[in-house]
Amino acid sequence: MKIKWLALSAITLVLSSGAVMAKEWKEIRFGVNPAYPPFESTAPDGSLQGFDIDLGNAICAELKVKCTWVTNDFDGLIPSLKARKIDAVLSSMTVTEPRKKQIDFSDRLFSGPTSIVTRKGSGLEPTAESLKGKAIGFQQGTIQEAYAKAKLAPGGVQLKAYQNQDQVYADLVSGRLDASIQDMLEAELSFLKSPQGADFQSSKGISDPMVPSDIAIGLRKGDEELKALINKAIAAMHANGTYQEIQRKHFGELDLYNN
């Protein structure tokens, strides 16, 4: 009888464990690399600003939870997520098959194609043939790094990795690089509109499965409750106009979601 009672108690515990283990989310810790304007950057007063930052804060407002931002190098965001130092990655992260093997993703936030930036009049195109013998820079941990290593390096293109995008542009302007490869919108809406980018231009978007364009929020595998909450908030922001308002604030009439 004692054995039966223990077995029954174990079954009761298992059946009730779902309610015990369910987490009441009061705070979401978003990991971000604030070196990618206009999506995420640091303001002069030290606060974070940008399209992704506003989206994250709006998601937290929709869910009525505290929004905490944790800064890190881009290539350290997924390790931080897996180590539970953050709850989600909101840093213009592209959804790729290799990343999906490590983490989950929310519904799509927007689209961001990849391009190369070169000096005007250089005649350089985003192909290994055109860039052969030239030096191209990229931010570590990005899909652009993976693409450059797989598609450009075998064709004789010299590759150089950097911790952040600002360092890439600094070497591009100084002449230590012949080209940079990055998100096309980031280049066009930030660097190319700045004084230092006046003599440079962006190529058209690169069409290749290695550089997809869907951007979403990175989540730990198994965090289904948080994923459902964030997806619910994203849907609500589209329905009530919050998403469109944030988009207009940063990009005017440019439609990042349907481009």
How is the topology of this model organized?
Blueprint: H1 2-21, E1 27-32, E2 35-36, E3 40-42, E4 48-49, H2 51-63, E5 66-71, H3 77-82, E6 88-94, H4 97-100, E7 104-105, E8 110-111, E9 114-119, H5 128-131, E10 135-139, H6 143-152, E11 158-162, H7 165-174, E12 179-183, H8 184-189, E13 200-202, E14 214-219, H9 224-240, H10 242-251
Parallel strand pairs: 1-5, 1-6, 10-11, 10-12
Antiparallel strand pairs: 2-3, 3-4, 6-14, 7-14, 8-14, 9-12, 9-13
Helix pairs in contact: 2-9, 2-10
Structure, explained:
- It is a single chain.
- The protein is of the alpha/beta class and 259 residues long.
- The chain has two domains: 25-111 and 213-251, Periplasmic binding protein-like II (D-Maltodextrin-Binding Protein, domain 2, 3-Layer(aba) Sandwich), CATH 3.40.190.10; 114-202, Periplasmic binding protein-like II (D-Maltodextrin-Binding Protein, domain 2, 3-Layer(aba) Sandwich), CATH 3.40.190.
- Helix content is 39%, strand content 23%.
- Strands 1, 5, 6, 7, 8 and 14 form a six-stranded mixed β-sheet that branches.
- α2 (51-63) crosses α9.
- The radius of gyration is 21 Å and the shape is globular.
